[in-house]
Amino acid sequence: MSEEAEQPVTATWPVLETPDRLERIIDIIAEDGAIDRALITPEATLETLGLASMDVVMILMGVEEKLNIYLPVDNDLASARNMSEFVAAIDRALEAGEPGEFDQDAK
């Protein structure tokens, strides 16, 4: 069994450095995934939310468009086990990339 699989699953939202980024990412997931926002909790998974791979693609495209960032589907994003880890992976990609429109508006 891999070391990563042995780590506990995160059940709280990550603390993001940019104010309001968490809410913005959750809004995008709800809108582009066509999910009731109240169902998007830290422990929810893509499966429990009923998201198919095409839904995930639409969410990632929405994140890219609305936050003005290229979001590679790398191991970090692909290995997210729940929404908390999924949001954290998006946040890390945003932090690693060039400042986008959202970051400029948040200042």
What does this structure look like?
With 107 residues, this protein is mainly alpha-helical. It has a single domain, classed as Non-ribosomal Peptide Synthetase Peptidyl Carrier Protein, Chain A (Orthogonal Bundle), CATH 1.10.1200. It is built from 6 helices and no strands. The protein has helices at 3-6, 21-33, 53-67, 75-78, 83-96, 101-106. Helix 2 (21-33) crosses helix 3. The N and C termini lie far apart (44 Å).
Order of helices and strands: HHHHHH
Query: End-to-end distance, in Å?
Result: 44 Å
Q: What is the CATH class?
A: Mainly Alpha
The helix content, as a percent range, equals 40-55%
User: What's the CATH architecture?
Assistant: Orthogonal Bundle
Name of the CATH homologous superfamily: ACP-like
What value does the Rg take, in angstroms?
13 Å
Summarize, please:
This protein has 107 residues and is mainly alpha-helical. The chain has helices spanning 3-6, 21-33, 53-67, 75-78, 83-96, 101-106. The chain has one domain: Orthogonal Bundle (Non-ribosomal Peptide Synthetase Peptidyl Carrier Protein, Chain A), CATH 1.10.1200.10.
